[in-house]
């Protein structure tokens, strides 16, 4: 019987939360803290989670830590249908991570953009095909940050691998996204705005039905307000939410997104929910920016 992945597709058309990975005082993964942050998201009404995403410091975690984060997420949710596990690095590592996630009950994986310095378009297809073919029972979601990749290449991948069901599109160009989605097949995939709330309104207007979020760790209700407005086509309300979060997201995006994770952890630290420590090549905020983040966070209903 052919798998339709309808449950997984529905989960992608939502707020796709990227949980942070909190660290304990000794630098290890704070297991209890991580579970508490997940429970806070779930209790707030967030249902789709991406462990081992970039906001979770994927590239700064060891292989064992990535497995731990996957295990904790699936234990806490109790249902893998809405868990989108981040995998990547070399093909054998990505395949092993995807199979590990599958064996724990996950039903989807997100494949991080290849970070190899030399990525050809046909090689991009080969990389994702090798992973998708290794786990045909999982929904596969490529994370696209490469502005040179064409929609035709994604369609080529899906022709070989029908389990490629969605796309996290993170090229900061709404016009390019609109063209890419139509070249690949607008109705064929679930389109997730991969640059979070700041880009969600423009990407939804072009066909996206979900968006990723790191801010959701801090203020789940704000992200839910935006998805609600976008689903109803109320762009005026969505832009009011956009204005509310603008400065927070500007701080995250500054200097090539150098403090993307740092700002989120700082906000959580100001609420007493997480230690502020991040791992290199990220670094903590200076004192003046810490105060600004705390002030912004205090103004939200969290």
UniProtKB/TrEMBL annotation:
SMART domains: DHDPS
Keyword set, alphabetical order: Lyase
Domain of life from the UniProt record: Bacteria
Pfam families documented for this protein: DHDPS
Record CDD domains: DHDPS-like
UniProt key word Lipid biosynthesis: no
UniProt keyword Flavoprotein, yes or no: no
Family matches, as InterPro entries: Aldolase_TIM (IPR013785), DapA-like (IPR002220)
Similarity section: Belongs to the DapA family.
Name of protein: Dihydrodipicolinate synthase family protein
């Amino acid at each position: 019987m052919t798998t339709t992945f309808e449950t997984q597709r529905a989960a992608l058309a939502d707020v796709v939360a990227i949980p942070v990975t909190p660290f304990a005082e000794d630098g290890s993964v704070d297991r209890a803290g991580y579970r508490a942050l997940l429970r806070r998201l779930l209790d707030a009404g967030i249902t789709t989670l991406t462990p081992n995403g970039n906001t979770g410091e994927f590239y700064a975690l060891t292989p064992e830590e990535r497995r731990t984060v996957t295990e904790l997420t699936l234990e806490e949710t109790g249902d893998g249908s809405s868990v989108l596990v981040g995998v990547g690095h070399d093909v054998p590592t990505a395949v092993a991570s995807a199979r590990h996630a599958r064996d724990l009950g996950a039903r989807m994986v997100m494949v991080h953009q290849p970070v190899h310095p030399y990525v050809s378009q046909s090689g991009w297809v080969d990389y994702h095909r090798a992973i998708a073919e290794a786990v045909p029972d999982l929904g596969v979601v490529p994370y696209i940050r490469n502005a040179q990749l064409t929609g035709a290449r994604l369609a080529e991948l899906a022709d070989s691998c029908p389990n490629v069901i969605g796309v996290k599109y993170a090229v900061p160009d709404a016009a390019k996204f609109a063209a890419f989605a139509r070249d690949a097949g607008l109705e064929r995939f679930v389109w997730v705005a991969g640059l979070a709330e700041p880009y969600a309104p423009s990407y939804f207007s072009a066909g996206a039905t979900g968006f990723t979020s790191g801010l959701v760790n801090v203020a789940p209700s704000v992200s839910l307000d935006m998805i609600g407005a976008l689903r109803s086509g109320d762009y005026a309300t969505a832009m009011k939410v956009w204005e509310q979060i603008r400065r927070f997201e500007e701080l995250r995006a500054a200097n090539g997104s150098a403090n993307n994770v740092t700002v989120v952890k700082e906000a959580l630290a100001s609420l007493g929910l997480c230690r502020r420590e991040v791992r290199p090549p990220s670094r903590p905020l200076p004192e003046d920016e810490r105060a600004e983040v705390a002030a912004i966070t205090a103004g939200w209903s969290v």
